[in-house]
Amino acid sequence: MANLQTNLVNWARDAKFSVTQWRDFDKLLQGNNRNISYAVGGAAALFALGGIYRLATREKLNNKKFSDYMTPTVEYYDIAIVGAGPSGSTTGFYLSRNGHKVLILEKKKFPRDKYCGDAVATMAIKHLKEMGVLSEIEKENKGCWAKSGGFISPCGNSFLGNSAKELGLDKTNEATIIAIKRIWLDEKIAGAARKAGCNLVENTTVTKVEFLNDVGLWKITSEQTDEAQKVTVITYYARGLVCADGAPSKLGRELGLVKNEPEGMCSRAYVKNNKLFNCDGLVFYPNRLLPGYCAIIREARDELNFCTYIIPGGKATNDDLPKLHDEIMKSDPYVSKLLGPDPDIERMKAASLRLGGVPKSYMQQLILTGDAAGFIDPLTGEGIQYAMEGGKLAADYLSKGLKQGTLSESFLKTYHDRWYNEWGREFYWSMKVSLLLYRFPIMLDAAAKVIEKRGSRFLAEWALVMTGGKSKTWFLRFDVWPYICMEMVGQMFRNLFGKNKTIAH
Fold it and tell me: What is the pLDDT of residues 119-134, one digit of tens each?
């Protein structure tokens, strides 16, 4: 009898009655206590049917409630994405390719610009190939592979080399970085998402989001502006929501996931008709910018990009950026020489940087990704590749959750844990290294000397680390850090005895 009751409890709990189980049940009924068995069996069957009925009724109630929200201006989606930058559009591309109905809401109309260094590194290049974007960029001559370059340390030590050749990438006419103007890049990625099946709605500002717990949907209220500047209020509903609305992340702050202002800032100014700069990319570390830096990057169609990065931890603040950008361009002995006395350069433009990753990038049926989630390396200011890789991860977990029928907070935590393990820990160490460089700029002087002595192959590996192709634990290798330490001692002697004249930089 006890065995019978155990089986009945298990069957009732699972609400699954196979043919074999019913046969076993019938055999048990052939024994003693037939009336009791029928009574218990009937109760269990009623319990199971009641559970099935409640599930069916609950779904009908949800549908009935959901129908209350349906109007001619309401649409339903599996996932709604706020922001069509590299991260949001990448998320949409992979979700649509997996067969999901996806909405992307973009505040502006393409083509629209974004101000940064335009350097697209290894992980992002992989996604650009997958999307078919890279081939379009190359065909239209809108990208420039950074094959040769190097850096100049605070005291003026420098080394230039061809990292692409050392890594064997010159055979495929590629490199670890390709420079692409964001006005071209973002439009191409958003276009790939649209081709994959996303409904990309431009000129649309999200004014409010609300989670409707009774139906398990996000309600997104938006204002769409047409060419005549007429504003139409449109409401959308989606099972999941992705916040990819950039570093300021108004939406992330309203939801309580983003709690502070962006920490860093970068500037950008395009230079035309320059004949003095003869490599693809050069990074400068003026003392007044540390732990930040500035760079000259070769763009397609014979243009240069002069950019300056303010990274927190040093004396320079975000408010200092306009002044420092202008001063370095005109008075730094290395930068000014390469830009020339009267460069044909546009007016500086700037954008904020959220660095190092947010502590929590998820909640019930919602994910934060890209700049909104702080996917920017605090040491280099590089964010495009982490934005696109984060978008792919977000799509993977959202797709898996939709198929399994859950986008719960505990499930989406696995997305956060994944990106943190893959590059979030790197961000932590990047911040520590950047602060060390600010306190001990001689480390950069010594590193330049080590690269000079070790040659282009060492520079190529250094470039891989700085662009995310290798872990920053590379610096801890026994064929790296002891040599830098020895050069630091040598640099101190050179500075002490005047054999290495330090130039104000």
Answer: 999 899 999 999 999 9
Of 441, 440, 453, the residue nearest 480 (C-alpha):
453
DSSP 475: G
pLDDT at 491 over 60: yes
DSSP, collapsed to helix, strand or coil, labels residue 312 as coil
Residues in the chain: 505
3-state helix vs strand vs coil in the chain, percent to 5 = 45, 20, 30
Rounded to whole angstroms, the Cα distance separating 377 from 386 reads 8
CA angle 268, 133, 421 (to 5 degrees): 75
Terminus-to-terminus CA distance in the chain, angstroms?
89
Distance CA 313, CA 439 (A): 9
Distance CA(306)–CA(324), nearest Å, equals 12
User: Which residues, at least 6 apart from 404, have a Cβ–Cβ distance to it below 8 Å?
Assistant: 411
Of the CA atoms within 13 Å of residue 91, those in its CB half-sphere come to 36
Q: What is the CA radius of gyration of the chain?
A: 29
pLDDT in tens, 310-340: 999 999 999 999 999 999 999 999 999 999 9
Helix (H) or strand (E) segment spanning residue 103: strand 102-105
Tokens 């060419």 correspond to 227
For residue 386, give the nearest of 407, 356, 365, 363 by alpha carbon. Answer: 356
Q: Does domain 73-112+181-261+354-438 have CATH number 1.10.260.40?
A: no
User: Who contacts 267 (Cβ-Cβ below 8 Å, separation ≥6)?
Assistant: 115, 307, 308, 321, 322, 325, 348, 349, 350
Tokens representing 98? 């997996």
